[in-house]
Design brief:
Elements lengths: L1 H26 L4 H22 L3 H22 L5 H13 L16 H27 L1 H14 L3 H16 L6 H25 E4 L9 E2 L3 E3 L2 E3 L8 H10 L3 E4 L5 H15 L1
């Protein structure tokens, strides 16, 4: 019975993440109904099993990891790492994947399955973010090239070059090449920053009709509607603000983020492959 419940939750989580991924790629949002449904179904099924089997561990694990991922979700949200939909999906993952799949080796390495997912999410997320940025730069290469030249001209290079040379000199003095890689990374900082800003300006900022706006969309610049001033904020646009912009009937510059939910799906699949 316990194995059936865990398999059900794993399948539920995978299906939920696939739906969330498709929504994120298409609409750049994760619907609340999906996140809250995953949380309610996961905790309710855990509670039902705990009551019928007389084993409280399933509901306790669900509540504990839901609580841990809830705290992390709020931390990532207010640190402006995750948007609202991503944060709620992280909470759902804590409830869904709180128990390890059977025949799991994660506890042999003293890594609970939800923590393994979180570690893989950080790793996969970094790789995914880099690859997706490269894809955007190639897809929008004309805009990227134009914006990169602008940012590169205004970038201050010499302090990073000077600091990199210091690292290289230290490496030669101690007869170790351990500081060569950090030196190269330091020298590349202005170019990396210019590339990130060029991708943002060239690929992630779009001019769209107000009728296409959705709640949570980010303004790319301040807009004045009559006497009301709308400023870019992390929480995004509200229904009332969108209604104002629709009445204004002018196109709006909106800043999109990289759709990050595919990294959630990849992290869970990688974690399952590692422990099954």
């Amino acid at each position: 019975m316990a194995e059936i419940l865990i398999n059900f939750l794993v399948i539920l989580g995978i299906i939920g993440l696939i739906i969330a991924t498709l929504n994120d790629l298409k609409k750049r949002e994760v619907p609340d109904w999906l996140n809250f449904s995953l949380i309610v179904i996961a905790l309710a099924s855990r509670l039902l099993y705990s009551l019928t089997a007389g084993n409280l561990s399933f509901i306790l694990y669900g509540l504990i990891y839901f609580g841990i991922f809830l705290v992390l979700a709020y931390a990532f949200y207010y640190a402006r790492i995750f948007a609202g939909g991503d944060s709620k999906l992280l909470m759902a993952m804590g409830a869904v994947f709180a128990s390890p799949p059977f025949n799991s080796f994660s506890f042999i390495f003293s890594i609970p399955f939800p923590i393994l997912i979180l570690i893989n999410l950080l790793f996969v997320g970094a790789v995914y973010g880099l690859l997706y940025s490269l894809y955007l730069a190639y897809k929008n290469r004309r805009e990227f090239s134009r914006e990169f030249k602008k940012f590169k001209k205004s970038a201050v290079v010499w302090p990073y070059l000077f600091l990199g040379l210091i690292f290289v000199a230290v490496s030669f003095l101690i007869k170790s090449y351990i500081f060569i890689i950090p030196a190269a990374l330091i020298v590349l900082i202005p170019y990396i920053y210019s590339s990130i800003k060029a991708v943002e300006r060239g690929a992630l900022i779009k001019s769209i009709s107000p009728s296409e706006l959705t709640v949570g969309d980010w303004l790319a610049q301040e807009i004045k509607v009559g006497k009301i001033k709308l400023v870019p904020r992390w929480e995004g646009l509200s229904k009332e603000q969108i209604a104002l912009l629709v009445r204004r009937k002018k196109k709006v510059l909106v800043k999109y983020g990289i759709p990050f939910v595919p990294a959630f799906l990849a992290a869970v699949i990688l974690s399952l492959l590692l422990v099954l």
